[in-house]
Amino acid sequence: MRWVDFKDSVKRFWNDYKREKSGMFGLILLVILIVLAVSAPYLTSPDVPQKWQVGWQTNPKNAPPTWVNRFSSISKAPHLVYSVKDVHITRNSSNGYTTYVLTFAYKNKYYLPPKDVVITGILNNASTPSQNPQMTLWVIRPPERGIKNNTMLLISGYSLPSNYTFQLSSSQDAKLNFLFWLYKNGAFKLNNMTPILNAQMLRLYLTMNNTLMQTMGTVDLVRALMGQLVNKSTGKFVPLTLINNVPGLEGLYTFKVYITAPQGVKLNFNHMKIYFVGRTYGILGTDQMGRPIAVGLLWGTRVALAIGISVSVTSVLLGIFIGVTSAYLGGWKDELIQRFTEFMASLPLLPMLILLSLWIASRSAAQSSKITLWQLVAIMVIFGWMGTEKIARSMALQIKEQTYVEAARALGAGTGRIVFKHIVPQLLPYAFASMALSVPGAILAEAGLSFLNLTSQNMVSWGRMLNNAYNNGATVNGYWWQVIPPGLAIAIVGFVFVLIGVSLDKVLNPKLRRI
Amino acid sequence: MAMSYGKYVAYRIVNALIILFFATLLSASLFVQLAIVEDKGLVQAQLTQQIQTYVKRHHTQPTQEWIQKLNQSLIHQYKLDVPYWKRVLETTKNTILWRWGSSQSALFGTYDVRKQIEIALPRTILMFTTATVIVILIGIALGVKSAQNPGSYMDRTIAILSMVTTSLPMWWLGMLMILIFCVWLGILPIKLYTTPRITSTIQLLKKMSLPVFTIVLNVFGAWAWTIRNIMIGVLQEDFIMAARAKGVPENKVIYGHALKAAAPPIVTMIIFAMLGSLSGAIITEIIFNWPGMGLLYWQALMSNVITTVMALTYISILLYLVSMILADLLYGWLDPRVRVGAAGSR
Fold first, then answer.
1. Is the pTM of this model over 0.90?
2. What is the ipTM of this complex?
3. Closest-CA residue in chain A for B31?
4. Do the Cβ atoms of A273 and A58 come closer than 8 Å?
């Protein structure tokens, strides 16, 4: 075929295809998907597959999307991150010690305030643990009627190693100090109390009270300290047993962190991050490890498109090659190839995929290793070419009997020339349509294998996300944001290729056009 | 070069048997590989354990010869000294001859592989056959209706529906159904799907309802669309026009003449769907905790019970080949041209 002819036929095809509304719609969606897949490393960060298993500690676990607040009467705090720019830092040296004061404010306007406050990324150059800076944390609550003292000390003299992750809600000191603050404000009374105890002794005394310790063990600290502790109608403190159920107290909370470092120890705040760990997260929420569903969804597009397209293109080409060869050779060779095709088709797909992936995994040296993406593609091609082969063979048998093929043979054309010049080009229209139409099957097969936990852990795919959701009991617990998006994504990609495939079929195979 | 029907049948059956042998051989060679890896680990574990007991009892390390001897006997016990191909051939033979033996650990409450399958199979048949029958009825009704009015609102809806549902994973739809009907609407108790236990007939029927609904929802669109396409092809044939011209009532033309002519491909579809469903849908059964063939397969894989997995794989190969033969025979019987075609390609 000459270049001009080729250009002309492409142009004609495009003019026909443009008229297919659903095909154009599918094509536009496909372009969007490809753009998303390519831009995933830039939209998120390029190391997502490496850190997919670890490195999401500061995110809330199983948090629903932020926009659920619009449909719910109970507003839940979204995830919020402060960097050094959001924190006011002053420095002050005396007696050989340097004290840094970090001041930041959080404006609470939610019924459910954040789950936790996490401070990370404060670097220091202390050479021994005894040189570690000491941290003290104060919180100033917005005024609430019935509470005398808005200021509470939560942490004092806490040794802070370099690049340490400090989590407020799991700190026993902070919980004890909070109870102490409550006591001082008259939230509860203790029996048999000798009134002359100093603060230190009083704290110790509190730890000896069993009911108080039980409360301390289960208290949702940040919710309680940002909550309405005084009942508005009665003016009395909420009993300790109900402290985990209080509604949030709206207003501005000021956090003051004092970090005192001995001489020679320098602190670096440039990488500091302060997380107000949300009760909701982003546009699609998080899973049980705190991984954002939206990030997984975006990266999953890459795997889905890579597997879908490479499997469908390769298996259709293989099917056509084998089918045409079989038809052209004829006789016992044809018979043999047909029996082999039937043999391959008789093998059940999913069990065979499972067995082969287990087998490949058992052969590789490392324990608990799984098959890679390209091994998966190879397996799926091996079990995916039979359908195309049957059709390609029957089409090739018809073409073989056409007079122009006979003429070519009479002119002395060789096997290769006849096959590639006369038979294969006739099959290409069918091939393109069937490539597009076999993409959904490939994506479904990958999703199934990933759901059964047979693919590599570092592969961020929609099937793996659903496996994760299933292991997490997402359906039973009603974590719909972990179940619906990955499945919908699979459906959308499948639908896009079906739309394109059906339109290609209509344009390229006008004989098959149905009314 | 037309073949007689009897010869044709014999040819197809011999062909299927040969394929069955090779397919079983291939699976057996994979299974034996997996079993060897598994058994080597077991031998190692037993060896260390026995050495530990020895040390505990005698307070000295066992001699090298003692360890060697134990190792040899363990290797013999796990048949690791038998050559690979001999084991493969033996496994193939036993599988084909229906001698599936017993599993290393209990599945569905029994060690006997045949019993495990006897327990699982009826449940899978119950669920998938019910669903398939419903799908066929809906599919034929909708397919015929939309073939009568191609391009109508309903026709286009079915086209889109079939496109959307073919790209949906059935098991994901199942998760969604549990979310909707158990968690949000609370129509069914969630406990139904958290354990595979079946306590009574009523509970069984309740447990079955959601998976059956899921399967129907997932496949009826594609069925309706395929039947519609077949019917449209038939309705364009001359004999339909002749029947209409004769004044045969439209209903009789559709259900009497056209549907009869469209029967062979539809019957083939039904055979493949019915027999294919018997090996169960692994993930769908996992999602609904349905104790059928799929869940049995998965539990066997998870607890490394290779004998059960081998038997189940064999059954699903067998079922595929049986449907292939049945479809072939039915075709050959309904449409004699096929026989000639099959022979002609030789």
1. no
2. 0.83
3. A355
4. yes
